[in-house]
Amino acid sequence: MKEHAVRSLLLAGLTLAAAAPAPAQQDTTRLPPGVELATRYTRLGRPLVAVRPFAGPVAMDLALQVAGVIRNDLLISDRFEMASPPASLEAGPIDYAIWNSLKVVYLVSGALAETPGGGHRLDITLHDVVYGNVLQQRGFTLPPASAPDFRMSIHAASDEIVRWITKQPGMAASRVAFVRQNGNRSYDLMLVDADGENLRRLVGSSNPIYSPAWSPDGRRLVYRIETDEGYAFVERDMESGRTRTVFASPNLITTPAYSPDGTRLVFGLWLAAGHQLHEYDVVRGCCLKRLTNTRGGDNLSPTFSPDGSRLAFHSNRTGRQHIFVMDAAGASQTILSPFGERVEYYAPDWSPTGSEVVFHGASRGTFQLMLADASRPGSQIQQLTSTGRNEDPSWAPDGRHVVFTGVAAGAVGLYVIDTKTGQVRRVASGPLRAAEWSPSLAAAAGVAQ
Protein backbone atom coordinates (compact mmCIF):
# COMPACT_ATOMS: atom_id res chain seq x y z
CA MET A 1 0.00 0.00 0.00
CA LYS A 2 1.27 3.47 -0.86
CA GLU A 3 1.22 5.61 2.26
CA HIS A 4 1.06 8.80 0.21
CA ALA A 5 -2.07 7.66 -1.60
CA VAL A 6 -3.75 6.64 1.63
CA ARG A 7 -2.86 9.91 3.32
CA SER A 8 -4.18 11.89 0.36
CA LEU A 9 -7.50 10.13 0.57
CA LEU A 10 -7.78 10.74 4.30
CA LEU A 11 -6.97 14.41 4.02
CA ALA A 12 -9.40 14.81 1.16
CA GLY A 13 -12.22 13.32 3.17
CA LEU A 14 -12.20 10.34 0.80
CA THR A 15 -14.78 11.00 -1.87
CA LEU A 16 -15.07 14.71 -1.14
CA ALA A 17 -12.13 15.18 -3.51
CA ALA A 18 -11.06 18.39 -1.83
CA ALA A 19 -7.49 17.85 -2.97
CA ALA A 20 -8.36 17.34 -6.64
CA PRO A 21 -6.69 19.93 -8.90
CA ALA A 22 -9.46 20.11 -11.47
CA PRO A 23 -11.48 23.08 -10.13
CA ALA A 24 -8.49 25.43 -10.23
CA GLN A 25 -7.96 24.51 -13.89
CA GLN A 26 -11.56 25.03 -14.93
CA ASP A 27 -12.69 27.83 -17.19
CA THR A 28 -14.80 29.79 -14.71
CA THR A 29 -16.94 31.34 -17.43
CA ARG A 30 -18.29 28.21 -19.12
CA LEU A 31 -19.95 24.98 -18.10
CA PRO A 32 -18.03 21.74 -18.70
CA PRO A 33 -18.68 19.87 -21.97
CA GLY A 34 -22.00 18.02 -21.97
CA VAL A 35 -23.39 19.93 -18.96
CA GLU A 36 -26.39 22.26 -18.88
CA LEU A 37 -27.97 24.17 -16.02
CA ALA A 38 -31.07 22.37 -14.77
CA THR A 39 -34.44 23.73 -15.82
CA ARG A 40 -36.49 24.72 -12.77
CA TYR A 41 -40.19 24.32 -12.32
CA THR A 42 -41.95 27.35 -10.91
CA ARG A 43 -43.26 27.19 -7.37
CA LEU A 44 -46.51 28.70 -8.64
CA GLY A 45 -49.35 26.36 -9.51
CA ARG A 46 -48.83 24.01 -6.58
CA PRO A 47 -52.03 23.17 -4.67
CA LEU A 48 -52.81 25.27 -1.62
CA VAL A 49 -53.06 23.14 1.54
CA ALA A 50 -54.27 24.14 5.01
CA VAL A 51 -53.81 22.25 8.29
CA ARG A 52 -56.40 23.00 10.97
CA PRO A 53 -55.40 22.84 14.66
CA PHE A 54 -56.11 19.30 15.86
CA ALA A 55 -58.92 18.60 18.29
CA GLY A 56 -59.23 15.94 20.98
CA PRO A 57 -59.10 15.35 24.74
CA VAL A 58 -55.37 16.06 25.12
CA ALA A 59 -53.31 19.04 26.14
CA MET A 60 -53.75 21.85 23.66
CA ASP A 61 -50.00 22.42 23.43
CA LEU A 62 -49.45 18.81 22.35
CA ALA A 63 -52.20 18.96 19.73
CA LEU A 64 -50.76 22.20 18.37
CA GLN A 65 -47.28 20.64 18.28
CA VAL A 66 -48.45 17.65 16.26
CA ALA A 67 -50.34 19.81 13.79
CA GLY A 68 -47.35 22.15 13.51
CA VAL A 69 -44.95 19.31 12.69
CA ILE A 70 -47.27 18.05 9.95
CA ARG A 71 -47.70 21.52 8.51
CA ASN A 72 -43.94 22.04 8.37
CA ASP A 73 -43.40 18.59 6.81
CA LEU A 74 -45.85 19.41 4.05
CA LEU A 75 -44.15 22.76 3.51
CA ILE A 76 -40.64 21.36 3.13
CA SER A 77 -41.89 18.58 0.83
CA ASP A 78 -41.86 21.41 -1.76
CA ARG A 79 -45.03 20.04 -3.33
CA PHE A 80 -47.58 22.45 -1.84
CA GLU A 81 -48.24 26.03 -0.91
CA MET A 82 -49.37 26.27 2.71
CA ALA A 83 -52.25 28.43 3.93
CA SER A 84 -52.78 29.64 7.49
CA PRO A 85 -56.39 29.00 8.59
CA PRO A 86 -58.19 32.12 9.82
CA ALA A 87 -59.18 32.02 13.49
CA SER A 88 -62.85 31.70 12.57
CA LEU A 89 -62.19 28.40 10.76
CA GLU A 90 -59.85 26.74 13.28
CA ALA A 91 -62.70 24.79 14.89
CA GLY A 92 -66.28 23.76 14.26
CA PRO A 93 -67.94 22.10 11.26
CA ILE A 94 -66.05 22.24 7.97
CA ASP A 95 -67.72 24.44 5.37
CA TYR A 96 -66.19 23.49 2.03
CA ALA A 97 -67.62 26.57 0.29
CA ILE A 98 -65.80 28.94 2.63
CA TRP A 99 -62.50 27.04 2.33
CA ASN A 100 -62.92 26.99 -1.45
CA SER A 101 -63.38 30.76 -1.47
CA LEU A 102 -59.94 30.99 0.17
CA LYS A 103 -58.46 29.00 -2.78
CA VAL A 104 -57.61 26.06 -0.49
CA VAL A 105 -57.49 22.81 -2.48
CA TYR A 106 -56.80 20.33 0.33
CA LEU A 107 -57.63 20.65 4.01
CA VAL A 108 -56.07 18.49 6.74
CA SER A 109 -58.00 18.06 9.98
CA GLY A 110 -57.24 15.75 12.86
CA ALA A 111 -58.00 14.56 16.37
CA LEU A 112 -55.53 13.42 19.02
CA ALA A 113 -56.47 11.15 21.93
CA GLU A 114 -54.52 9.29 24.61
CA THR A 115 -54.31 5.50 24.55
CA PRO A 116 -53.63 3.02 27.38
CA GLY A 117 -49.92 2.98 28.21
CA GLY A 118 -49.37 6.69 27.65
CA GLY A 119 -49.36 6.71 23.86
CA HIS A 120 -51.70 8.51 21.51
CA ARG A 121 -53.98 7.87 18.58
CA LEU A 122 -53.91 10.43 15.79
CA ASP A 123 -56.87 10.40 13.42
CA ILE A 124 -56.24 12.39 10.24
CA THR A 125 -58.76 13.37 7.59
CA LEU A 126 -57.78 14.78 4.20
CA HIS A 127 -60.52 16.84 2.59
CA ASP A 128 -60.76 17.59 -1.12
CA VAL A 129 -62.15 21.10 -0.83
CA VAL A 130 -62.78 21.58 -4.55
CA TYR A 131 -65.03 18.51 -4.76
CA GLY A 132 -66.37 18.95 -1.23
CA ASN A 133 -65.66 15.49 0.14
CA VAL A 134 -63.33 13.40 2.28
CA LEU A 135 -60.44 12.09 0.18
CA GLN A 136 -58.71 9.92 2.82
CA GLN A 137 -59.07 9.11 6.50
CA ARG A 138 -56.75 7.06 8.67
CA GLY A 139 -55.64 6.52 12.24
CA PHE A 140 -52.00 6.44 13.40
CA THR A 141 -50.58 5.11 16.66
CA LEU A 142 -48.09 7.47 18.30
CA PRO A 143 -45.80 6.59 21.21
CA PRO A 144 -45.74 8.75 24.37
CA ALA A 145 -44.64 12.33 23.74
CA SER A 146 -41.44 11.66 25.70
CA ALA A 147 -40.45 8.71 23.47
CA PRO A 148 -37.48 9.13 21.10
CA ASP A 149 -39.61 8.25 18.07
CA PHE A 150 -42.56 10.53 18.89
CA ARG A 151 -41.69 13.09 16.21
CA MET A 152 -40.80 10.33 13.74
CA SER A 153 -44.31 8.89 14.15
CA ILE A 154 -45.75 12.29 13.22
CA HIS A 155 -43.42 12.47 10.20
CA ALA A 156 -44.77 9.08 9.08
CA ALA A 157 -48.29 10.51 9.10
CA SER A 158 -47.07 13.49 7.06
CA ASP A 159 -45.61 11.16 4.44
CA GLU A 160 -48.98 9.42 4.14
CA ILE A 161 -50.64 12.77 3.45
CA VAL A 162 -48.07 13.46 0.73
CA ARG A 163 -48.77 10.03 -0.79
CA TRP A 164 -52.54 10.55 -0.64
CA ILE A 165 -52.30 13.80 -2.59
CA THR A 166 -49.43 13.14 -5.00
CA LYS A 167 -49.31 9.30 -5.24
CA GLN A 168 -45.55 9.68 -4.57
CA PRO A 169 -43.41 8.87 -1.49
CA GLY A 170 -42.57 11.48 1.10
CA MET A 171 -39.29 12.02 2.95
CA ALA A 172 -40.28 13.41 6.35
CA ALA A 173 -39.92 10.06 8.19
CA SER A 174 -36.17 9.79 7.59
CA ARG A 175 -32.83 10.90 8.96
CA VAL A 176 -29.44 11.96 7.68
CA ALA A 177 -26.25 10.42 9.05
CA PHE A 178 -23.03 12.41 8.69
CA VAL A 179 -19.56 12.82 10.16
CA ARG A 180 -18.48 15.80 12.24
CA GLN A 181 -14.78 16.46 12.74
CA ASN A 182 -14.07 18.38 15.93
CA GLY A 183 -11.31 20.85 16.67
CA ASN A 184 -9.56 18.36 18.98
CA ARG A 185 -9.28 15.91 16.06
CA SER A 186 -11.99 13.67 17.40
CA TYR A 187 -14.84 12.43 15.21
CA ASP A 188 -18.57 12.11 15.75
CA LEU A 189 -21.10 10.12 13.77
CA MET A 190 -24.18 12.33 13.86
CA LEU A 191 -27.88 12.03 13.07
CA VAL A 192 -30.42 14.70 12.23
CA ASP A 193 -34.05 14.34 11.20
CA ALA A 194 -35.05 15.33 7.67
CA ASP A 195 -36.59 18.55 8.97
CA GLY A 196 -33.35 19.59 10.72
CA GLU A 197 -34.59 18.72 14.20
CA ASN A 198 -33.38 16.14 16.75
CA LEU A 199 -29.66 16.60 16.07
CA ARG A 200 -27.69 14.07 18.11
CA ARG A 201 -24.37 12.26 18.35
CA LEU A 202 -24.55 8.54 17.67
CA VAL A 203 -20.87 7.56 18.01
CA GLY A 204 -17.78 9.42 19.15
CA SER A 205 -14.21 8.35 18.45
CA SER A 206 -10.65 9.63 18.59
CA ASN A 207 -10.06 7.61 15.41
CA PRO A 208 -11.35 8.89 12.07
CA ILE A 209 -14.89 7.85 11.08
CA TYR A 210 -15.86 7.80 7.41
CA SER A 211 -18.51 6.71 4.95
CA PRO A 212 -21.74 6.00 6.87
CA ALA A 213 -24.25 3.92 4.87
CA TRP A 214 -27.79 2.83 5.74
CA SER A 215 -29.19 -0.64 5.21
CA PRO A 216 -32.21 -0.69 2.88
CA ASP A 217 -34.65 -1.18 5.77
CA GLY A 218 -33.08 1.58 7.88
CA ARG A 219 -32.45 -0.80 10.79
CA ARG A 220 -28.65 -0.84 10.44
CA LEU A 221 -25.96 1.75 9.82
CA VAL A 222 -22.45 0.80 8.75
CA TYR A 223 -19.39 3.08 8.87
CA ARG A 224 -15.63 2.82 8.40
CA ILE A 225 -13.28 3.37 11.31
CA GLU A 226 -9.53 3.10 11.75
CA THR A 227 -8.20 0.48 14.16
CA ASP A 228 -4.78 -0.48 15.52
CA GLU A 229 -4.71 -3.30 12.97
CA GLY A 230 -5.92 -1.25 9.99
CA TYR A 231 -9.51 -0.50 9.03
CA ALA A 232 -12.93 -1.96 9.78
CA PHE A 233 -16.55 -1.64 8.76
CA VAL A 234 -18.65 -1.44 11.92
CA GLU A 235 -22.39 -2.13 11.69
CA ARG A 236 -24.74 -0.66 14.29
CA ASP A 237 -28.19 -2.01 15.08
CA MET A 238 -30.24 1.20 15.28
CA GLU A 239 -32.80 -0.18 17.72
CA SER A 240 -30.56 -1.92 20.25
CA GLY A 241 -27.39 0.12 19.76
CA ARG A 242 -25.31 -3.06 19.48
CA THR A 243 -22.37 -2.98 17.09
CA ARG A 244 -20.35 -5.61 15.28
CA THR A 245 -17.40 -5.60 12.90
CA VAL A 246 -18.62 -6.96 9.57
CA PHE A 247 -15.32 -6.69 7.67
CA ALA A 248 -11.75 -5.71 8.60
CA SER A 249 -8.57 -5.32 6.58
CA PRO A 250 -5.00 -4.08 7.06
CA ASN A 251 -5.47 -2.32 3.71
CA LEU A 252 -7.59 0.78 3.28
CA ILE A 253 -11.30 0.10 2.80
CA THR A 254 -13.90 2.77 2.20
CA THR A 255 -17.28 3.88 0.75
CA PRO A 256 -19.48 0.86 1.62
CA ALA A 257 -22.94 0.44 0.08
CA TYR A 258 -25.58 -2.16 0.94
CA SER A 259 -27.24 -4.19 -1.78
CA PRO A 260 -31.03 -3.58 -1.95
CA ASP A 261 -31.69 -6.88 -0.17
CA GLY A 262 -29.31 -5.90 2.66
CA THR A 263 -27.18 -9.05 2.43
CA ARG A 264 -24.06 -7.66 0.77
CA LEU A 265 -21.70 -4.71 0.99
CA VAL A 266 -19.86 -3.34 -2.03
CA PHE A 267 -16.86 -1.13 -1.23
CA GLY A 268 -13.43 0.02 -2.32
CA LEU A 269 -10.44 -2.07 -1.16
CA TRP A 270 -6.85 -0.92 -1.70
CA LEU A 271 -4.83 -3.38 -3.78
CA ALA A 272 -1.22 -2.57 -4.78
CA ALA A 273 -1.84 0.55 -6.86
CA GLY A 274 -5.39 1.66 -6.23
CA HIS A 275 -8.86 0.84 -4.99
CA GLN A 276 -10.88 -1.93 -6.60
CA LEU A 277 -14.57 -2.53 -5.89
CA HIS A 278 -15.33 -5.71 -3.97
CA GLU A 279 -18.48 -7.43 -2.78
CA TYR A 280 -18.82 -9.12 0.61
CA ASP A 281 -21.64 -11.17 2.13
CA VAL A 282 -22.33 -9.56 5.53
CA VAL A 283 -24.91 -12.18 6.54
CA ARG A 284 -22.63 -15.20 6.10
CA GLY A 285 -19.44 -13.21 6.82
CA CYS A 286 -17.62 -14.54 3.80
CA CYS A 287 -17.13 -14.64 0.09
CA LEU A 288 -15.11 -11.56 -0.85
CA LYS A 289 -15.53 -11.05 -4.60
CA ARG A 290 -13.68 -8.56 -6.80
CA LEU A 291 -15.86 -6.55 -9.21
CA THR A 292 -13.40 -4.17 -10.92
CA ASN A 293 -9.94 -4.90 -12.27
CA THR A 294 -8.35 -1.70 -13.55
CA ARG A 295 -4.61 -1.20 -13.78
CA GLY A 296 -3.92 1.30 -11.04
CA GLY A 297 -6.19 4.18 -10.16
CA ASP A 298 -9.21 4.14 -7.90
CA ASN A 299 -12.75 2.78 -8.15
CA LEU A 300 -14.88 4.15 -5.31
CA SER A 301 -18.34 5.20 -4.10
CA PRO A 302 -20.47 2.31 -5.39
CA THR A 303 -24.22 2.83 -5.37
CA PHE A 304 -26.93 0.35 -6.37
CA SER A 305 -29.88 0.86 -8.71
CA PRO A 306 -33.24 0.34 -6.94
CA ASP A 307 -33.61 -3.20 -8.33
CA GLY A 308 -30.02 -4.15 -7.47
CA SER A 309 -29.13 -5.10 -11.03
CA ARG A 310 -26.65 -2.27 -11.65
CA LEU A 311 -24.04 -0.18 -9.87
CA ALA A 312 -22.73 3.33 -10.42
CA PHE A 313 -19.31 4.38 -9.10
CA HIS A 314 -16.51 6.83 -9.83
CA SER A 315 -13.15 5.89 -11.31
CA ASN A 316 -10.06 7.69 -12.62
CA ARG A 317 -9.14 4.91 -15.06
CA THR A 318 -9.30 7.41 -17.96
CA GLY A 319 -6.86 9.78 -16.27
CA ARG A 320 -9.78 11.87 -14.96
CA GLN A 321 -12.46 11.07 -12.42
CA HIS A 322 -15.66 9.95 -14.17
CA ILE A 323 -18.91 8.28 -13.22
CA PHE A 324 -19.33 4.73 -14.53
CA VAL A 325 -22.17 2.21 -14.51
CA MET A 326 -21.94 -1.56 -14.66
CA ASP A 327 -24.07 -4.58 -13.88
CA ALA A 328 -23.98 -5.82 -10.29
CA ALA A 329 -21.59 -8.65 -11.17
CA GLY A 330 -19.01 -6.21 -12.56
CA ALA A 331 -19.62 -6.64 -16.32
CA SER A 332 -20.50 -4.04 -18.97
CA GLN A 333 -18.64 -1.12 -17.37
CA THR A 334 -19.68 2.04 -19.22
CA ILE A 335 -18.85 5.71 -18.65
CA LEU A 336 -21.91 7.73 -17.65
CA SER A 337 -20.56 11.29 -17.32
CA PRO A 338 -19.75 13.25 -20.51
CA PHE A 339 -16.13 12.96 -21.53
CA GLY A 340 -13.95 16.05 -21.86
CA GLU A 341 -10.67 17.56 -20.81
CA ARG A 342 -10.31 19.08 -17.35
CA VAL A 343 -13.48 17.48 -16.00
CA GLU A 344 -13.76 15.60 -12.72
CA TYR A 345 -16.84 13.81 -11.36
CA TYR A 346 -17.14 12.11 -7.96
CA ALA A 347 -19.39 10.46 -5.37
CA PRO A 348 -22.46 9.19 -7.28
CA ASP A 349 -25.70 8.22 -5.57
CA TRP A 350 -28.45 6.37 -7.43
CA SER A 351 -32.02 7.57 -6.95
CA PRO A 352 -34.20 5.16 -4.93
CA THR A 353 -37.11 5.77 -7.32
CA GLY A 354 -35.64 5.67 -10.85
CA SER A 355 -32.62 5.91 -13.13
CA GLU A 356 -31.25 9.29 -12.06
CA VAL A 357 -27.75 9.44 -10.57
CA VAL A 358 -26.61 12.51 -8.64
CA PHE A 359 -22.92 13.35 -8.06
CA HIS A 360 -20.60 16.34 -7.78
CA GLY A 361 -18.25 17.62 -10.44
CA ALA A 362 -15.92 20.48 -11.29
CA SER A 363 -17.70 23.42 -12.93
CA ARG A 364 -16.65 27.05 -13.30
CA GLY A 365 -13.80 26.68 -10.87
CA THR A 366 -15.51 24.78 -8.05
CA PHE A 367 -17.55 21.67 -7.30
CA GLN A 368 -21.27 21.64 -8.04
CA LEU A 369 -24.02 19.00 -7.96
CA MET A 370 -24.77 17.19 -11.21
CA LEU A 371 -27.57 14.89 -12.36
CA ALA A 372 -27.38 12.19 -15.04
CA ASP A 373 -29.73 9.54 -16.39
CA ALA A 374 -28.18 6.08 -16.00
CA SER A 375 -30.30 4.80 -18.87
CA ARG A 376 -28.53 7.24 -21.23
CA PRO A 377 -24.74 6.96 -20.68
CA GLY A 378 -22.73 9.81 -22.18
CA SER A 379 -25.77 12.04 -22.73
CA GLN A 380 -26.02 15.62 -21.54
CA ILE A 381 -26.20 16.03 -17.77
CA GLN A 382 -27.80 18.71 -15.62
CA GLN A 383 -26.02 20.97 -13.16
CA LEU A 384 -28.25 21.41 -10.09
CA THR A 385 -26.28 24.08 -8.17
CA SER A 386 -24.27 27.05 -9.38
CA THR A 387 -23.08 29.01 -6.34
CA GLY A 388 -20.78 28.13 -3.44
CA ARG A 389 -19.02 24.77 -3.22
CA ASN A 390 -21.27 21.72 -3.10
CA GLU A 391 -20.25 18.07 -2.72
CA ASP A 392 -21.12 14.52 -1.68
CA PRO A 393 -24.86 14.34 -2.51
CA SER A 394 -27.27 11.69 -1.20
CA TRP A 395 -30.89 11.11 -2.24
CA ALA A 396 -33.88 11.34 0.07
CA PRO A 397 -36.30 8.38 0.01
CA ASP A 398 -38.72 10.47 -2.08
CA GLY A 399 -36.28 10.50 -5.04
CA ARG A 400 -36.75 14.26 -5.28
CA HIS A 401 -34.61 15.87 -2.59
CA VAL A 402 -30.84 15.61 -2.15
CA VAL A 403 -28.69 16.37 0.91
CA PHE A 404 -25.14 17.61 0.36
CA THR A 405 -22.19 19.30 2.00
CA GLY A 406 -22.19 22.95 1.01
CA VAL A 407 -19.88 25.90 1.58
CA ALA A 408 -21.55 29.28 1.33
CA ALA A 409 -19.89 32.57 2.36
CA GLY A 410 -17.14 30.52 4.03
CA ALA A 411 -19.60 28.58 6.22
CA VAL A 412 -19.82 24.79 5.94
CA GLY A 413 -23.08 22.95 6.50
CA LEU A 414 -25.52 20.32 5.34
CA TYR A 415 -28.08 21.54 2.84
CA VAL A 416 -31.08 19.99 1.12
CA ILE A 417 -32.04 20.87 -2.45
CA ASP A 418 -35.33 20.16 -4.18
CA THR A 419 -34.14 18.90 -7.58
CA LYS A 420 -37.38 20.07 -9.23
CA THR A 421 -37.49 23.70 -8.08
CA GLY A 422 -33.93 24.34 -6.88
CA GLN A 423 -35.23 25.37 -3.46
CA VAL A 424 -32.42 24.98 -0.86
CA ARG A 425 -32.59 24.83 2.94
CA ARG A 426 -29.95 24.17 5.60
CA VAL A 427 -30.37 21.27 8.05
CA ALA A 428 -27.11 21.47 10.03
CA SER A 429 -24.02 23.66 10.23
CA GLY A 430 -20.35 23.09 11.02
CA PRO A 431 -17.37 21.12 9.66
CA LEU A 432 -19.46 18.24 8.36
CA ARG A 433 -19.06 15.68 5.60
CA ALA A 434 -20.15 12.31 4.19
CA ALA A 435 -23.90 12.85 4.56
CA GLU A 436 -26.05 9.78 3.90
CA TRP A 437 -29.84 10.03 3.77
CA SER A 438 -31.73 7.07 5.23
CA PRO A 439 -34.61 5.21 3.60
CA SER A 440 -38.03 5.76 5.12
CA LEU A 441 -37.85 4.87 8.80
CA ALA A 442 -41.59 4.58 9.38
CA ALA A 443 -41.62 0.78 9.26
CA ALA A 444 -38.25 0.39 11.04
CA ALA A 445 -39.47 2.45 13.98
CA GLY A 446 -42.90 0.80 13.96
CA VAL A 447 -44.65 4.15 13.86
CA ALA A 448 -46.99 3.83 10.88
CA GLN A 449 -50.17 1.97 11.87
Q: Could you explain the architecture of this structure?
A:
This protein is mostly beta strands. It folds into 2 domains: 3-30 and 174-440, Neuraminidase (6 Propeller), CATH 2.120.10.30; 48-166, TolB, N-terminal domain (Rossmann fold), CATH 3.40.50. It is 13% helix and 43% strand. It has 6 helices and 30 strands. It has helices spanning 3-11, 22-25, 60-76, 96-101, 150-166, 442-445; strands at residues 35-37, 48-51, 81-83, 106-114, 120-128, 133-142, 175-181, 187-193, 200-205, 209-214, 220-227, 230-237, 243-249, 253-258, 264-271, 274-281, 286-290, 299-304, 310-315, 322-327, 334-335, 345-350, 356-363, 366-373, 381-383, 389-395, 401-408, 411-418, 424-429, 432-437. β8 and β9 form a beta hairpin. The longest helix is centred in the first third of the chain and has 17 residues, at 60-76. The radius of gyration is 23 Å and the shape is globular.
Keywords:
449 residues; mainly beta; Neuraminidase; Rossmann fold; five-stranded mixed beta sheet; 6 helices; 30 strands; 13% helix; globular; disordered N terminus
